[in-house]
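re the bet — no i am not wrong, look at it urself. input seq straight from the record:
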Amino acid sequence: MAHGITPKDLSTFDGSAIAMAVPQLEDKWVLVTGAGSGIGRATAMAFARRGARLVIADNDPEALDEVGLEIAGLRLECIAFRVDVADEAAMLRFARAVHVLIGAVDVLINNAGIGYLGPFLYSPLESWRRVLDINVMGVVHGCHVFGQDMVNAGGARQIVNVASLAGIAPAPNMSAYAASKHAVMGLSDVLSMELADTEVGVTAVCPGIINTPITTAAGAISSAISLAQADKLRAYYETNGASPDVVAQAIVDAVRSGRSLVLVGPYAKRMYHLKRLSRALTKALTISDARKNGYL
């Protein structure tokens, strides 16, 4: 089995190709990484409710079991794997097992990710390595070990890479996270061009403020951020953040329609268009908000 995506000859590409839609999800195989909680869990359940068959992966076995039981309760097929997306060898074993069991997946959702909040000059490099290993290399591994088989299998299929509004318009104290999500956006753009002559589409998802455990996970906040600031941030996400179900439904809709970019949740569309209009204005407003909240 090949593990790299073979670039297509783009010399005749006319720019008219769009992401391939998968309008009928019943009995399709959908693979979701980071399916144990947050957006991943909500997404797995949203596809299950559409009659899809699920391959779910997470590094938390207890959370994975809970999601698997919930999907099984819908009388749908579900295969669960404990896997660390940052581990190349583990992802290769994961892909081999999936291909033996079901062949090429119809929809691949590279969702697994972690957050990190802290000023750049006071953030240890090990926090950067952890964020990039999971948020960037996890997506790279997913595309690499599953992508070629999706192309070879033929038929409309979709790769969905979950980025973030931080990949478009980041705020202070999120340099590592923002860098990782910018990388996911760049990878998605390039991959969509290289697969333009295939039946595999690529969708990038940019959620805005979403109320998920990513903001409260262990190791996600620098020691330079005070407890009061951290509590204020959590309260803000709980009060203003959209439910992960909102993102999950947007992902389902994007796969069914073949959309290449999904902007969903509070501030996502607003900041996307503001950044296109004026980088300077976006920067000024973001700095102002950061100062009001005590982050600058």
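see?? The chain is about 45% helix and 15% strand. told u. also The CA atoms of residues 247 and 264 lie 6 Å apart. so pay up
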